[in-house]
Design goal:
It is built from six helices and no strands. With 141 residues, the protein is mainly α.
């Protein structure tokens, strides 16, 4: 279905902003993509989430390559997290499809709020025993 030029420009702008944030802050583009598509373009929450997942693949590949060239990736750790991410994405996607659109949208908003508040709070210093464990972990690197 053909889209009007304003919709096309809006989608491109959302993609540029999401890619920029993903590259700059390492956040999944969905933090911006999903709300922008729902609020600016009236996408259904399910469609916005599915579209966001497609968009993140090429953006993540470029960001990964850039960081890899600079040596800022721990490949073994990344592969382990990726393995868990694949499993989690499959379970999460199937779960999302069984949830009402409005409830899914509200759940997404709650997650964004919780993460935002948590990031704004000061980081607590580790207890003495945690500091010792962190030091030993860095010695093993």
């Amino acid at each position: 279905m053909p889209a009007d030029p304003l919709t096309i420009l809006t989608l491109l702008a959302i993609g540029v902003a999401a890619g920029f944030l993903a590259g700059l802050l390492g956040v999944g583009g969905g933090i911006l993509l999903v709300p922008a598509m729902v609020l600016l373009l009236g996408f259904d929450q399910h469609v916005a989430q599915g579209t966001s997942l497609v968009v993140i693949v090429p953006a993540a590949m470029i960001g990964t390559w850039t960081h890899y060239r600079r040596g800022t990736i721990r490949p073994r750790d990344a592969l382990l997290v990726a393995a868990g991410g694949v499993i989690g994405a499959a379970i999460g996607s199937l779960s999302a499809l069984s949830i009402d659109d409005t409830l899914l949208q509200r759940g997404f908003a709650v997650v964004l709020l919780v993460v935002a508040v948590r990031m704004l709070l000061p980081k607590r210093p580790p207890a003495d025993d945690e500091t010792a464990l962190i030091g030993k972990a860095h010695e093993l690197d």
